[in-house]
Write a structure and sequence with these properties.
about 350 residues; Serine Threonine Protein Phosphatase 5, Tetratricopeptide repeat; TATA-Binding Protein; 2 domains; five-stranded antiparallel beta sheet
Amino acid sequence: MSSPHPPRPALRRLAALGAMSLLALPLAAAAATAQTTAQTLAQAQELIDARNPAPALPLLNGLLQREPGNARALLLRSTARFLGDDLAGGKKDLDRALELDPTLRQGWLNRAAFEVAGKRYDAALAAFGRAETLDPRAPENDLNIGAVFLLQGKLQAASGRFESYLQKQPGIADASYLVASNYAAAGYAALAVANLRRAVGLDERSRLRARTDPNFAGLSSDAHYQELLAEDTYKPPAGAHLASRTYDLPYDAAEGTLLSSVVEAMQLAGERFDPRVESTPDWALIWGDLRVKVAKGPGGKGLVQASAPFERMPAADWQRRTTKLFQQIAVQIYNRQISSMKQRPKPG
């Protein structure tokens, strides 16, 4: 007896399964290629973000040999070349990337930066305009375009853009600071100080940031700016933890002995704090879980004040930590005094 033939529907299913298996091969290969491309782009981006463009270039060169029309790879290679001072190569790649994909917003931002560096401000505004069209809600649109208007000497147009930028980021210290920095770079001292004062009110560390910002260097002789740098207007929130101690060692910014003792004591006490310390002739600030101010106290003594918002820690923890800190400060001062005495020359 002859074997039965499979029913026709079964044959159709088998044929379909065969076609699917054949189709899976190119799909799997395409997926693997896409994954390799994505990994290469991510690795190159990481290197470029770390300002280490040299090893990123061979990665991108290899990718672009396989995929010469990859606009993202061209954009990254242009950035790597710019970082390596290959301006001609960077511009060539950037132009090609935008030609292939005009929706690359970062590409238009990079083009604008390139034009600003060459003082081609109209071209920079056109590039920033394309970036704004691609993402109209991005707050940096106003900041970027305002900065270029300022470089062109168009104060009213710049101020309008800056105000729009600030309105979109209410209560953000960095926003006010960036506006202040732009005004300072352009020499508008009053506008710079007004916006910096607003930034300091939102985050007092903005004042320390301005001290090391080259954009503010031109304001060194401005009385209002110097007054702002000398002020400590911080007021602890209602109900904040507060404590202070005075020490026989005076606060002397030039000598720095008391401040160094406090910093060392905080390290030994296990307190976390920002290594950036703001110091003036009359006071110094250390920011961490505790806000610690070292200043001139009554009778020529040194004053150390500590504070923290109430919700940051329970009262018992506050008491334990500040007691330990103040005791450690006293120990550090004593050790320094003993060391100083040992180093003094003995009378002959």
